[in-house]
Amino acid sequence: MKPLQRADLWSLEEYAERRPEFREQVMAHKRNRRLALGPNMMLLFEDRLTMQYQVQEMLRAERIFEAAGIQEELDAYNALIPDGRNWKATLQIEYPAVAERQTALQRMIGVEDHVWACFDGTTRVVAIADEDMDRERGDEKTSAVHFLRFEFPDDAVSAAKAGAKLAIGVDHDAYRAEVDAVPEPVRAALVADFD
Q: FRET partner for 13 with CA separation of 20 to 30 A, picked from 31, 116, 157, 187?
């Protein structure tokens, strides 16, 4: 996927007009890019459209209109666009009660290094986590949000394109979950990222 450029973005004024329709389009697009891992984890697989939305929303929220500020946002979010050989995902750890979330995050230190994906007949690919920054506070707790990159070897990409079943999971001592057959609409959206 091509990185985003300034020419791909709308001005703040134009985005204000287009935002309701664009937001609806992006939310519909995200439906096939989300995957729950058990009751307390969600993966959102990012792509060019989800990142365009994030950049536009950041520019809007921060009222950024100068070239340098826009480029800074593009540089930050372009890193989350897959390059055709990988997937990029946001991992969210979700607990409704604050106290429960704090306790879980303390138990889950390192969980981001235990998220994997596997196409039938291929080796498990463990995600590379948080390349942008360390998101843990020493041995206190992990963050509720992590950024992951799944790098796939050629045989996995070939299997994916041939229709192989996809499993995704997490195998941390404090949290284990697996989707042994990712739903087809999600699998198809992710396989399309390999182009």
A: 31
